[in-house]
Triosephosphate isomerase
Amino acid sequence: MAKRPLLVGNWKMHGDGGDLPTVIAIGEAARRHPAVDVALCLPATLIERAGRVCLGLAIGGQDCHAEPNGAHTGDISAAMLREAGASLVLLGHSERRHDHHENDVLIAAKLRAARAAGLDVMLCVGETAEDHAAGRSAEVVRQQLTRSLAGMGGQGIAIAYEPVWAIGGDRTPDPAEVAAMAGLIRDTVSGVRIVYGGSVTPDNGAALFVDGGVDGFLVGRQSLDAEAFIAILKSIDLATRQISSPS
Ligand code: PGA
């Protein structure tokens, strides 16, 4: 059975109180498209305020610490995110793997902490340009998955396939490549929703969704622009209806 589509925005280190109207506009659009689950992963400073103004979507964090509390200056725990109103958290994003040298062992510990605190997790995996060029994409993604999940089942977890070389630019894999990777992820961990991330736009969204065989997207830059993000939401909703009732 097809899974409910899932569209998640990742604001990264962008956004302040002046951007709450964007959150509200996206929340209103999410209410008009109830067949799609919509979430925004916001900077921690915005989570509580966004939760107060917006009921149409889920609010998420972008990372959490593996410990519930302690002397960890600058970090935030899963329980803190949850208390602020988050219901999910991104883990293993390539920017954290790269900028903060996060490895799969640490990500696995964070994942256990997030689930224990009652947060859903979007676990990000994806190969670098170098691995892609060397034909090692499948091997890298399979290894990230098995090491980061470390025996955890798929309950409360979605997987974002984000090739590092496709993030933040204008290049995406062919939908067929996304479909192959989605198949590999499905074979490795059963029952999870799989989204694609990396330079998704209103123009390429429909093809990546339908031909890429994914359940939705993790969207960076285009989630900061309500109009663009809502256009992606509409195209997912339309494609889902076309798939479930072909003419
Ligand atoms: P992008 O970012 O859509 O701006 O490429 C995606 C991501 O990093 O999650």
